[in-house]
Amino acid sequence: MSAQFTRTPHPAPVPADRRAAILADPGFGRHFTDHMVTIRWTADGGWQDPALVPYGPLTLDPATMVLHYGQEIFEGLKAYRQPDGSIASFRPTANAARFRASAARMAMAELPDDLFLASLTELVTADREWVPPAGGEESLYLRPYMLATEVGLGVRPSAEYLYLLIASPAGPYFADGVKPMDVWLSTEYTRAALGGTGTAKAGGNYAASLLPQAQGAEHGCAQVAYLDAEERRWVDEMGSNNLFFVYGSGDDAEVVTPSLSGSILAGITRDSLLVLAKELGCQVTERRISAEEWLTGCADGSITEVFGCGTAAVITPIGRIKHVDGEVTVADGSRGRSPCGCGSCSPTSSGASPPTRTPGCGRSSRPEGRLPETPGTPRSGPPLT
To answer: What pTM value is reported for the model?
Structure first.
């Protein structure tokens, strides 16, 4: 369909002084912009009625299918104000492709990539004053999502869906900023199993992580790392992050991440790190890593760094791993230097893991801080406004 959006301006947008106060201390996921995008899908009419409307509540019938059978998916990406005042997002085509893949796994309608990208441009253009200034830690976090809206009971794919896009000015994902965090290694709960929904960005995967997350919090941990569901031996990922391990340092550093096994979400930040690490000359390996290797490697010093990565948290160092039998510290447990010099990119001390916040900080050896385009896999989008 042609992306001809109807536009309904907000009758009472947030006053400029209030918006400025929010942007000065946005937190994460606490405040939302003046507008949102909606697009409907029906089995008879396909995608229809793309609209920019005032941000506001949804009205759902008590028998709306998403409330009973959980057909819901989402994405997350960021828009950054560039030094020249323009606004760009980081690898939006990758998010569009993953959104389609999630929809397919959950038996939902697949939103065309061009419509996904048009929705981003529509909302960011309307709410461009909500994008924080260039050069800092802040960005505009974009949350596309889709839910089943057919009214009725019965376990089957819905005949109606609603796609929405909302936006929130965002500072650091963790309230304390980028510093080494403690991670709980769960041996009681798993995140996903082969053949399940682990490769889809579906709300149910995150709901299932809340109980082990609470368990980790009881042990003073900010995140939970999971093992595979089959053997309870191989490192999977964290609740909201992919995991990376660094062996050695300097020219001898090897960057290792668990291979995509069929239960791990294919992180866009993860993929970006793999590309950049290779360009920095690091040895890069995707393979299985056991919990025993992780804990032993930290204890004997062969593992020099561990960090999580994702759109929201970007790169977050892990300083200590706690588990039912004790705990180990990664190296000296401290945050190291940031390779690009901005103080807010990679938390590494060896310089092995590359920066990925460059679209926002504007300080990079790459023009505009973007990854190169490769045939068939666009890695960054044109300016949104």
So the answer is: 0.87
